[in-house]
Amino acid sequence: MACAAMDMSFLADPSRFAKSHWEDEDCNDELAEMLECEPNGFSLAPVMNPSTFCQDLKKSGDAPGLTDFKKGTTTLGFVFQGGIIIAVDSRASMGSYIGSQTVRKVIVINEFLLGTMAGGAADCSFWERHLTRLCRMHELREKERISVAAASKLLANIFFSYRGRGLSCGTMVAGWDKTGPNLYMVDDQGDRYKGQRFSVGSGSTYAYGVMDSGYRHDLTLEEAVELGRRSIYHATHRDGASGGVVRVYHVHEKGWTNIVEGQDVNELHYQYAKEKGLTGTE
């Protein structure tokens, strides 16, 4: 398939892509005060069409593999008789490069809502924090907390409007509202699913295997926390893109509680091996 070469001449003056929209305005006193809060520029990618650059670059063949984002994570959530358990790892990676072992992949939306992030860390973090603002605005307008269904729908609508523009997000929205505990999964295509248990990320197949084998709706809180922790550990053991520490949250009628703040998966490896009568070095 023949493709036309991309015109890169615009790179001669990339500064024009980072100008403030106020920069060429004559400032009066009122506008000057506004400018104090306005950044000098909001940098866009220095390309002719930022919204389609990823597709254009891939079609051109100039940089094969550059836009094939190599990401990895493991997040999971399930509903049980005591509410919802959310468990995540903490590794940020790109291929074989480990960027961080301390990423917080659970984002607090409000005191009754939590979101998880899998995929591009910047995309998930930005849009879920934007969702936090939208939920707060709803609460101020309507004088009541937003429902879990409505919050997840807001996020799905945002992702749907950005389809094809390079977003990489696989998120869960978990919370407690008037209808009880609710768990939704939302992806970057704008798809939205309600369910009893989900796992998202490169290690999700391993987490599903452990979670499905031990899941019951009548689990006690201690059993549910241990199931979430064990599922994440086994995923990090088999998936090189997942790792760091395990964090476990419990969503209940009075809000949410961080049950496990950060337990090293290496410690869990030897702990679980000891329970089997092994040393962990086999």
Notes on the structure:
By secondary structure, this protein is of the alpha+beta class. It has seven helices and twelve strands. The chain has helices spanning 29-37, 53-60, 121-142, 148-161, 204-214, 221-238, 265-275, and strands at residues 75-80, 83-88, 92-94, 97-100, 106-110, 113-116, 170-177, 180-187, 192-194, 197-200, 245-252, 255-264. The strands form three sheets. It has a five-stranded antiparallel beta sheet with strand order 10-1-2-11-12. A five-stranded antiparallel beta sheet has the order 5-6-7-8-9, covered by helices on one side. It has a two-stranded antiparallel ribbon with strand order 3-4. β8 and β9 (192-194) form a beta hairpin.
Question: How is the topology of this model organized?
Answer:
Layout: H1 29-37, H2 53-60, E1 75-80, E2 83-88, E3 92-94, E4 97-100, E5 106-110, E6 113-116, H3 121-142, H4 148-161, E7 170-177, E8 180-187, E9 192-194, E10 197-200, H5 204-214, H6 221-238, E11 245-252, E12 255-264, H7 265-275
Antiparallel strand pairs: 1-2, 1-10, 2-11, 3-4, 5-6, 6-7, 7-8, 8-9, 11-12
Helix pairs in contact: 3-4, 5-6
The whole-number mean of residue pLDDT values reads: 86
Low-confidence stretches: none
Tally of DSSP β-strands:
12
- The oligomeric state of the chains shown is single chain
- The fraction of residues assigned to DSSP E strands is 15-25%
Strand-pairing-aware structural class: alpha+beta
Please give the alpha-carbon distance between the first and last residues: 51 Å
Could you give a short account of the major beta sheet?
Answer: 5 strands, antiparallel
In which order are the strands of the major sheet placed?
10-1-2-11-12
Report helical residue fraction.
Answer: 25-40%
Element order: H for helix, E for strand: HHEEEEEEHHEEEEHHEEH
Supply the number of helical segments.
Answer: 7
In one word, what is the shape? flat
Radius of gyration: 22 Å
